[in-house]
Amino acid sequence: MKQVFLVFIGGGLGSVVRYWLSLKLNNFENAIPYGTMLSNILGSLLIGLIFGYSAKSGVLTENHSLLLATGFCGGFTTFSTFAYENHLFLKSGDFFSMIPYLIITFVLSISAVFFGMYLSRLI
């Protein structure tokens, strides 16, 4: 039960931070929802750091990983919102926003995980 609570707390905190970021960066003036994109990229970097550091040092326990990676990063990143925003781009025929948003998010998010793993070796 403690592990479920840790995921719950981390996920709630991550969701609030993502919501705040979306309020600040997602608006109708920008074609691309920068808040969602940034939360996915930063969350990917963070999860790479967490798991890389955990594998390297063994300092982080399973409970730390549940709170930080599963909970916080899971709540902070959002594939469902990303998918819905791409649906809206497709529906409106806005391919000039959809294509860069798709490519940038995928490439930078995956790269961020690898970069986080690399940075964890330097810590």
Attribute tags:
globular, mainly alpha, 123 residues, 5 helices
Instruction: Give the radius of gyration.
Output: 16 Å
DSSP summary, beta strand count: 0
How much helical structure, as a percent, in the residues? Answer: over 70%
Oligomer: single chain
Number of domains: 1
Can you give the mean pLDDT? 95
Order of helices and strands: HHHHH
Structural classification: mainly alpha
Shape designation: globular
Q: Which residue ranges are poorly predicted, with pLDDT under 50 across at least 5 consecutive positions?
A: none
Please describe the biggest sheet, giving its number of strands, its sense, and whether it closes into a barrel.
none
Report the β-strand fraction as a percent range: under 5%
Q: Span between N and C termini?
A: 32 Å
Q: Give the number of helices.
A: 5
Give a verbal description of the structure.
- The chain has about 120 residues and is mainly alpha-helical.
- It has one domain (about 1-25, about 35-120).
- The chain contains 5 helices and no strands.
- The protein has helices at about 1-25, 35-55, 60-75, 80-90, 95-120.
- The N and C termini lie far apart (about 30 Å).
List the helices and strands and how they pair.
Layout: H1 2-25, H2 34-57, H3 62-76, H4 79-92, H5 95-122
Question: What's this entry about, in short?
Answer:
This protein is mainly alpha-helical and 123 residues long.
